[in-house]
Each structure stands twice: as structure tokens, then as C-alpha cells.
């Protein structure tokens, strides 16, 4: 397995960064997770745009142009003979000293890892996941800047730990006001009376690229979509609940906090959206 590390291709064993890298010391950096389906890098432009927007927002200079980054991703895929899998793009502030000051980090670190992806089973897509809400709240800095896909994932990891303790695959995180925000690494949608709802990003949700694709599909398929805040009560009484994300795609939820959702299986709108999403991933991207 070849890993792109600051312009060079190194083996997995040799892919190492400095202990002074501020990505390691402070989580100072940004990342993207991208899928490649049968040689098609899904929503490539959207992911690269989000990466470069996140970088601009935190005043991080990526030492590659967006075109060079795309070429580096394609070369990493080629070297690994990867046509189906997951691409992780990481840009950290780079090595500096022990202080916080980013001015001491002259060069950002750029890392590209491509891997096979272990995702949910087909039964999980059909039958839905069991989920729980957790006490961990979407943290304030990210709630103010939910559009930055930063390396600061401690909050999400605490949600994941609570999900693990409850024995579920994904959990639901609220914001400080108690509105439903998102999962540990997925956006959330509910369906009630044939209307599809997802929280606006200002509630504290990442502007997910799968989320955007699903919103667009809703429009194309004629489902009414509302981007508005909702609570756990709305989740419990929803007809359908599903998560979206690059890794998870569109996965139904059949139970939340012990309340059965709808029929207790993936609902018709979720199933329709998943089917259309799987058609889309083959065409919407870069070959
Ligand atoms: N929310 C969070 C916190 C995430 O980490 C992710 C996945 N990267 C998502 C939502 C889903 O976003 P996307 O569809 O762009 O993968």
C-alpha cells in the first residue's frame, strides 16, 4: 500500500510524520473522506472545494493547487490500483514547535491514504440500524463553524464511545439547545408524512456532501424537503429515520432509544433514496 506523504509515495510502514506536527499536537488541520466507485471519484469537486474552503477558513496554506491535489489523488489511486474504496485526504498545519502559534509551522503536511472500506452489511441497509441519542453535545466551536471539516474530532469520538457502550453503530448527537444535530460521522434525516427533514447546518451539522446529494435527489424525485430544526421527539415519532455519509451512504435507522421507528425496517423513501444514490455514485464525479 502506497501513501502520498508530502509529494512522495512511501509504504504504509514508512508513512510517518513529526511529533511536532500540529495536526498531532493540537488537531490543527483538516481532512476529507471521499469514495471511489468503479473508478469514479464521487463528488470529487465538492470534496476538494470543501477541503480548500476549510483550509481558507482556518488560514491554512495548502502547498498544492486544487488541480495538483486532484492529480495527487489520482496518482495515489493508480499506484494502489484502487477502483473501489475510500480516499482520506489530510492537510495538517505541519511541524512547528510546542507552542500553538501556526506561524512556527512553515509547511503544511499533505497526506493521501486510499483503502478498502468495511461498511455496513446489506442486511443493515435493508433492516436498519439500532441507534441511541447520547449526552455528549455538539461542541461549541464546531457548532459555530460546522462547515470546517477539522481534525478536532474529540467530540465525535466521545459520541462514538457512547455508541460503543450502548452497542450501536451510530448515535445521535444534539446541540447545546437540545436540537438534533447529527451522528458521530453522519448527517441525519427524518421522514414524516412524506416530508423529508434534515437539520440546517447552523444547528451543528457538517455540510455533508452525501447530505447535499440526498437533498438534490429529494428535489429530483419530487419529495418535499425541509431543512429545519427538530427534536428527539420528532425522531421518535418519525415514519423513517436515516443517516447519510461518505462511508455509510444512506442507512436506515429502525430503532432510537428503544422506540421503534415506522415499520421497524428501512422505510420506502429511505429505500428509494438509497437506490437512486447508488445509481448516482457511478456517474457523478471524476473518472
Ligand atoms: N458529519 C460528520 C461529523 C462527519 O464526520 C461526516 C463524514 N465525514 C458527515 C457528517 C457526513 O459528511 P459527508 O457526507 O460529506 O461524508
TrEMBL record:
Pathway: Amino-acid biosynthesis; L-leucine biosynthesis; L-leucine from 3-methyl-2-oxobutanoate: step 4/4; Amino-acid biosynthesis; L-valine biosynthesis; L-valine from pyruvate: step 4/4; Amino-acid biosynthesis; L-isoleucine biosynthesis; L-isoleucine from 2-oxobutanoate: step 4/4. Keywords: Amino-acid biosynthesis, Aminotransferase, Branched-chain amino acid biosynthesis, Pyridoxal phosphate, Transferase. It comes from the Bacteria. The keyword Acetylation does not apply. It catalyses: L-valine + 2-oxoglutarate = 3-methyl-2-oxobutanoate + L-glutamate; L-isoleucine + 2-oxoglutarate = (S)-3-methyl-2-oxopentanoate + L-glutamate; L-leucine + 2-oxoglutarate = 4-methyl-2-oxopentanoate + L-glutamate. PROSITE patterns: AA_TRANSFER_CLASS_4. SUPFAM superfamilies: D-aminoacid aminotransferase-like PLP-dependent enzymes. Its cofactor is pyridoxal 5'-phosphate. GO terms for molecular function: branched-chain-amino-acid transaminase activity. Its EC number is 2.6.1.42. Belongs to the class-IV pyridoxal-phosphate-dependent aminotransferase family. Acts on leucine, isoleucine and valine. This is Branched-chain-amino-acid aminotransferase. The gene is ilvE.
Amino acid at each position: 500500500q502506497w501513501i502520498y506523504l508530502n509529494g512522495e509515495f512511501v509504504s504504509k510502514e514508512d508513512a510517518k510524520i513529526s511529533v511536532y506536527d500540529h495536526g498531532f499536537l493540537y488537531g490543527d488541520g483538516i481532512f476529507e473522506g471521499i469514495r471511489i466507485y468503479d473508478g469514479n471519484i464521487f463528488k470529487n469537486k465538492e470534496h476538494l472545494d470543501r477541503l480548500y474552503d476549510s483550509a481558507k477558513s482556518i488560514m491554512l496554506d495548502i502547498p498544492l493547487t486544487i488541480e495538483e491535489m486532484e492529480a495527487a489523488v489520482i496518482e495515489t489511486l493508480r499506484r494502489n490500483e484502487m477502483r473501489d474504496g475510500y480516499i482520506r485526504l489530510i492537510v495538517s498545519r505541519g511541524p512547528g514547535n510546542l507552542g500553538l502559534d501556526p506561524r512556527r509551522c512553515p509547511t503544511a503536511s499533505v497526506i493521501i491514504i486510499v483503502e478498502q472500506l468495511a461498511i455496513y452489511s446489506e442486511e443493515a441497509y435493508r433492516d436498519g440500524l439500532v441507534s441511541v441519542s447520547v449526552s455528549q453535545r455538539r461542541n461549541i466551536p464546531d457548532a459555530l463553524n460546522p462547515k470546517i471539516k477539522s481534525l478536532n474530532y474529540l467530540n465525535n469520538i466521545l459520541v462514538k464511545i457512547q455508541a460503543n457502550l450502548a452497542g450501536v453503530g451510530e448515535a445521535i448527537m444534539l446541540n447545546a439547545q437540545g436540537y438534533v444535530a447529527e451522528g458521530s460521522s453522519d448527517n441525519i434525516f427524518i421522514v414524516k408524512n412524506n416530508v423529508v427533514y434534515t437539520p440546517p447546518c447552523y444547528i451543528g451539522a457538517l455540510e455533508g456532501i452525501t447530505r447535499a446529494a440526498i437533498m438534490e435527489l429529494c428535489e429530483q424525485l419530487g419529495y418535499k424537503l425541509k431543512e429545519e430544526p427538530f427534536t428527539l421527539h420528532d425522531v421518535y415519532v418519525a415514519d423513517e429515520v436515516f443517516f447519510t455519509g461518505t462511508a455509510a451512504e444512506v442507512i436506515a435507522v429502525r430503532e432510537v432509544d428503544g422506540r421503534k421507528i415506522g415499520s421497524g425496517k428501512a422505510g420506502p423513501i429511505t429505500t428509494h433514496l438509497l437506490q437512486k444514490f447508488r445509481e448516482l455514485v457511478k456517474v457523478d464525479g471524476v473518472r
